[in-house]
Every structure is written in structure tokens, then in C-alpha cells.
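ok so for the tutorial part 2 we go from a plain amino acid sequence to predicted C-alpha cells. step 1 is just haveing the sequence, like this:
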Amino acid sequence: WTTTIDSTKLHFLEIHGKPPGFVELLPKLFEWRNQAKQHDVPLFVFTMMRDPLDWLLSCFNFFCLAIRKHTKCTSPASISGLLQQARPDPQSRWFCFMNTIMAVPNQTEPDMSSCTLHYILPLLIENMDWVGFLEKYDESLLVLQQVLPPNVTLRFQKRNKTRQTKIKREMLNETTTFFLKNSMKQDYDLYNKLQQEYRLENVLAE
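step 2 — the prediction. this is what the C-alpha cells look like for a chain of 206 residues:
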């Protein structure tokens, strides 16, 4: 969206819906940065991460429960269905191959051998001004408030409240939890290393 506040024009672009994977998006990020530099316009690029298990549950609850009739999800709306849909390191897959985060019938499995932590992590650090974490959402609001003009105040209102049946973390037994977390080891390594790299105190000190 675009808005003007006290003669200050702001453009906010959200990559959402059916976005390209991060690697596919990189040339466009380079182009935006070059244009911003040429026109002396500030540009701030950020993304949000989430605990991998919570992310997986949210993704399954949305695509296989909430909007099931509009998706290709054919798995049962249950924990067994979650296990059918779960694929190794889905967030890493988004960075390299967008359309492989959940199981889709007759989909060709990509070669993930090149989609390693050592490949993804430097690309993120080099191209993201900030990586926030859903569990620390207030920190990202503070960071954005730092980069926005002083006459702009951010407010957050949760709108996606639902009473629909959902698969929750506490419904998973110890064996299932261990299996899912072990299948997302690279995602957890990425999540933890990014938390070490992007700290609120470092932004506030600048």
C-alpha cells in the first residue's frame, strides 16, 4: 500500500499470496536497492521467522483445515494428516524452492542437496535489513518504528482470530514432536542462528 502522512509518502510492499521463493526474488531485491540508491530513497527490507514447529502447525491448520475446500490438501484433518503433509525443513524450502513447503499430489521432489544452511544464511544476512521473530513481534514493531519517519506511529491489531478446530502443539505426543522437530533440524538451526544475528539492541544502538 501507499500512504502520505504530513507530506511524507510511504510505500509498503508485502510479498504474499503465491510469492516466489527467496532465491528467485533476489534479482528483484537487487533492482529495488539500486533504484532506491539512485533516487536517494531509503529502503528497508525485512522478513519474519517463526518457531519451525509452530509454523508447520499454522500452515497445516490454514491450508488443510481453514481453507481446505480451496486447496489441494487431501490429507485427513488430523495429526495423521499433519504427518502426511509434513516435509523436511519447509522454511528452508521456501528460500530455495517456494512451491515445495507442503506435500502436493504428483509433485516432483526437488534436489535439496544445494539448499543448505551455509547457502541460505549468508544470503539472508546480506540482503535483509532485519529478520524478526513472531514470538518477539513487539521487537519488530520497535525496529520498524526506528526506521519510519517520527510522525508515523505503528499499531498492531490481530485480525485472524478463529474458533475453528486446530491442531495444537499440546496435542502432539512426545514421539510425534520429536519426529517433526528432527525433520526440521536445518530450519531450527537457521532460526537459532538468525536470532543470534538480528538482535534488537544492535538496531537500537545504531
